[in-house]
Amino acid sequence: MTPSARRSYAVSAAVAWMSGGLAYLILEAVAAKAFRPHYSYAHNYISDLGVTSGLDSPRAWLMNTAFCLQGSLFLGGAILATRAVRTRKAWLFLTFAAANAVGNFLIAIFHSGPAAQADGTAWVHATGAVLAIVGGNAAILAGSAVIDGPRWYRWVSAWLGVVGLISFTMFVIQLTTTADYVLPAAVRERGSVYPITAWQIFTAAWLLTRRR
C-alpha cells in the first residue's frame, strides 16, 4: 500500500471519530435540554435521556440516534485506522471496537427505567452498557498501540483508558452497595463514558495534524 493510501485511510478514520464524538455530545446536550422537569449531568444517568416510555425525555430518539452514531463511527474509524497500519495487534483493537458498537446499539434499542424492569429487558440494556463502556475503554488501550503515535500520545491514551475503566468499576460498586460516596453515581458513569469520546476526538485531531 502506498503512503498516500495509508494517509487517506488515516484521515478517513479521523473524520469518522471526530464526527462520531462531536455528534454524540451535541445530540446528548439537545436531548438533555428538553428533559423534564430538569436534567442534571451530575445526578441523572445518560440512559435516562434515551427512555421512550413516559414524558421525561421527549427527545429520546435523538439520544438513541447518538448511541447508534457513536457505535457505528467508532467501529468504522477503527476499521479505517487499521487499514493504515500493518500490525498483528489490530484484531484486538477491532474486537473491542466491535463490542463497543454492539453495546451502543443494545442501549439504543433496549432502554432502562421502570418499564424495562417490568418487561424483563433491563438486563439487555445493562449488558449493552458493559459492552459499550468496557469495550470502548479497552479499545483505547489497544488502539493507541495500533496507531503507534509518539510517547506523549500513548501516555494520554493510556491515562484515558485507565480512568474510564476505573470509573466504571467504581460506578458498578456504587450501584451494588449502600455506602455513602462523595461523588454521585451519575458522575462516575460519565467518567467511564466520556474518556471514550475524548480519546476519539483527541486521536482524530492528532491524525489530522501530524505531518506524515
Folded structure, characterized:
It is built from 7 helices and no strands. It has 212 residues and is mainly alpha-helical.
What would a concise description of this structure say?
The protein is mostly helical. It has 7 helices and no strands.
List the main descriptive attributes of the protein structure presented here.
212 residues, 7 helices
Write the layout of secondary structure elements.
Elements: H1 3-33, H2 60-83, H3 90-109, H4 114-119, H5 122-147, H6 151-176, H7 185-209
Helix pairs in contact: 1-2, 1-7, 2-3, 2-5, 3-5, 5-6, 5-7, 6-7
Q: How far do the termini sit from each other? A: 15 Å
Q: What is the number of E strands?
A: 0
SSE sequence, one letter per element = HHHHHHH
Helical percent range?
over 70%
Count of all domains:
1
Average pLDDT across residues? 92
Strand content: under 5%
What is the helix tally? Answer: 7
Biggest beta sheet attributes: none
Poorly predicted regions: none
Bulk shape: globular
Radius of gyration computed on alpha carbons: 17 Å
Based on secondary structure, the structural category is: mainly alpha
